[in-house]
Design goal:
Elements: E1 2-5, H1 11-20, E2 25-28, H2 32-35, E3 44-47, H3 54-59, E4 65-68, H4 78-84, E5 87-90, H5 96-111, H6 114-122, E6 139-143, H7 147-158, E7 162-167, E8 178-181, H8 185-188, E9 194-197, H9 211-216, E10 222-225, H10 234-242, E11 248-251, E12 271-273, H11 284-300
Parallel strand pairs: 1-2, 1-3, 3-4, 4-5, 6-7, 6-9, 7-8, 9-10, 10-11, 11-12
Helix pairs in contact: 5-7
Length: 316
């Protein structure tokens, strides 16, 4: 079987795959520009998911399986993939450790006034009047109760938080005290201190959080988005901050990325901007390839027990 990588992985992982699967033919490339000439022969494509198009799917005449070594699926050409009945799997869940750590660290950053403290340190200013708060015992709503949301909730429990989860189904999930459907969002928001969004980008999640939602949150609430930027319009966030509907916004994802250098969000003291790095970890590729290997075994054995098989009709 010809297995093509448009995803650039380390030499160490390349050698591991070659050693573990001597009967398979691997072609490792540094991007789709290099990989395109090999597409017509590939039965399996391993990609980060942002380099595919309808045209490329048509060129990949032998393609039967796409392994996406990221969780975001919003740029995948699903119509063309569905037409060809190509299997799609991803690595949903491997981001849970770094992203959960990011969420807790950012909430601590806000409540322990780290921005202010660093500014004072640079100015050699000794000021013990800086207002400190505790995240322990607060209430957190996590929009998205999958692997990442569950890990955030698990860590929140170490801080004795009450954890609410919101999902499409509203079904009960471990580490959440209560779970709600998306339609119940208005009921929950007035009662929470932290709102953490880990939602993917789908037709139903785009623009989900409206200005009225921010108005219904307590004025001391902190909103953190590390899912996808289009879950809330950028001008809505900016307006909510400027009108003091909430106390702080931590944003790792945006409608437009990179966030333009002249965007007003950079200048807001009560906004923390990070460049879409909440999921970054030195363990990212090894974890992704481990899932790929398990799915490769499934594919070779002609089984149907894939890890993270994607419903191409839904896009996730």
């Amino acid at each position: 079987m010809d297995i093509l990588f448009s995803a650039n992985i380390s030499q160490q992982l390349q050698q591991r795959l070659i050693a573990n699967y001597p009967d398979q033919t691997f072609t490792f490339c540094k991007g789709m520009e290099d990989a395109r000439e090999h597409l017509s022969h590939a039965e399996t494509l391993v990609t980060y998911g942002e380099d595919l198009s309808d045209e490329l799917i048509q060129e990949a005449t032998q393609l039967k399986w796409i392994m996406v070594i990221s969780a975001g699926m919003d740029k995948m050409p699903f119509s063309a993939i569905k037409e060809r009945n190509i299997i799609v799997t991803n690595v949903r869940g491997i981001h849970k450790v770094p992203m959960a750590e990011y969420a807790i660290s950012m909430l601590l950053q806000v409540y322990r006034q780290e921005k202010v403290l660093i500014a004072h340190e640079k100015a050699s200013r000794w000021d013990r009047s800086v207002k400190m708060q505790e995240i322990t015992g607060q209430t957190m709503l996590i929009a998205g109760t999958g692997a990442i949301g569950q890990e955030v909730a698990r860590l929140a429990k170490a801080f004795q938080m009450t954890t609410y989860g919101m999902s499409r189904s509203g079904k009960s999930v471990e580490f959440f005290d209560e779970t709600y459907r998306v339609e119940q969002l208005d009921e929950i928001l007035p009662n929470v201190d932290f709102v953490v969004s880990v939602l993917p980008s789908t037709a139903k999640t785009k623009g989900l959080f409206t200005y009225d939602h921010f108005k219904s949150m307590p004025e001391h609430a902190v909103f953190l988005n590390m899912g996808r930027g289009d879950v809330v319009k950028t001008d809505v966030i900016l307006q909510a901050i400027q009108n003091e509907e909430i106390a702080h916004a931590v944003l790792d994802v945006f409608e437009q990325e990179p966030l333009p250098a002249d965007h007003p969000l950079w200048q807001e003291e009560r906004v923390t901007v990070t460049p879409h790095l909440s999921g970054i970890s030195p363990q990212y590729q090894p974890r992704a390839i481990e899932i790929f290997e398990q799915n490769l075994d499934t594919y070779i054995e002609e089984q149907d027990c894939y890890i993270n098989k994607v419903d191409v009709s839904r896009g996730y």
